[in-house]
């Protein structure tokens, strides 16, 4: 998900006369792509069967985000895990509503230029990878 929001992050590019607005970017990740979580027996992501390709793709999203953030320190590029949300993806078996799942994503989309970049977060805040 790329969140477009006007204002807050002015920059300049080359000879442009008008400011270039650079809104934060949320990449929607998942705890399933977190090496820490899949190794933690206390976490629901621990040894979850049948999600191998999905989990690997989410790890790739995380790594890509780290590289984007390092390459472009003026941007805010983060991964956000919405948490287990009742959607088509899981046959509506997630434990939280779409509104609850969207909360962390919206929070990251509202970051200003002094906010974190290259992070992984969920509803509880910034989390280890
Ligand atoms: N639900 C969870 O518990 C959960 C947990 C962690 C992370 N996530 C992540 O949250 C994100 C949203 O998941 P969700 O649960 O909302 O899934 P979802 O209910 O399956 O919705 C996926 C959405 O993506 C759209 N989409 C899929 N492929 C697309 C494409 N190639 N181009 C444009 N749009 C495309 C679909 O559009 P159509 O309806 O038109 O097909 C649909 O609106 C995913 O990245 C997922 O991995 C979800």
Would you mind describing this structure in some detail?
This protein has helices spanning 35-38, 52-71, 98-109; strands spanning 10-11, 20-21, 25-28, 77-80, 120-122, 125-127. It is built from 3 helices and 6 strands. Helices cover 28% and strands 14% of the residues. It has a single domain (24-127), classed as 3-Layer(aba) Sandwich (Rossmann fold). The strands form 2 sheets. The protein has a 4-stranded mixed sheet with strand order 3-4-5-6, sandwiched between helices. Strands 1-2 form a two-stranded antiparallel ribbon. The chain binds NADP nicotinamide-adenine-dinucleotide phosphate. The site of NADP nicotinamide-adenine-dinucleotide phosphate has 11 residues, from loops.
Tell me, rounded to a whole number, the average pLDDT: 88
Poorly predicted ranges: 1-12
Looking at the overall shape, the CATH architecture is: 3-Layer(aba) Sandwich
What is the straight-line distance between the termini? Answer: 19 Å
Q: Which secondary-structure class do the elements indicate?
A: alpha/beta
Strand order in the largest sheet: 3-4-5-6
Number of structural domains: 1
Radius of gyration: 16 Å
Order of helices and strands: EEEHHEHEE
């Amino acid at each position: 998900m790329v969140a477009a929001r006007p204002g807050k992050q002015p920059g300049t590019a080359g000879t442009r006369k008008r400011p270039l607005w650079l809104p934060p970017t949320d990449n929607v990740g998942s705890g399933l792509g977190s090496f820490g979580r899949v190794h933690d027996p206390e976490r629901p992501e621990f040894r979850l069967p049948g999600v191998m390709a999905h989990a690997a793709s989410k790890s790739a999203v995380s790594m890509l985000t780290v590289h984007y953030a390092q390459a472009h320190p003026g941007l805010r590029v983060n991964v956000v895990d919405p948490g287990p949300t009742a959607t088509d993806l899981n046959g509506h078996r997630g434990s939280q509503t779409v509104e609850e799942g969207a909360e962390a994503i919206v929070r990251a989309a509202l970051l200003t230029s002094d906010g974190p970049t290259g992070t992984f977060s969920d509803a509880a805040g910034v989390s280890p990878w």
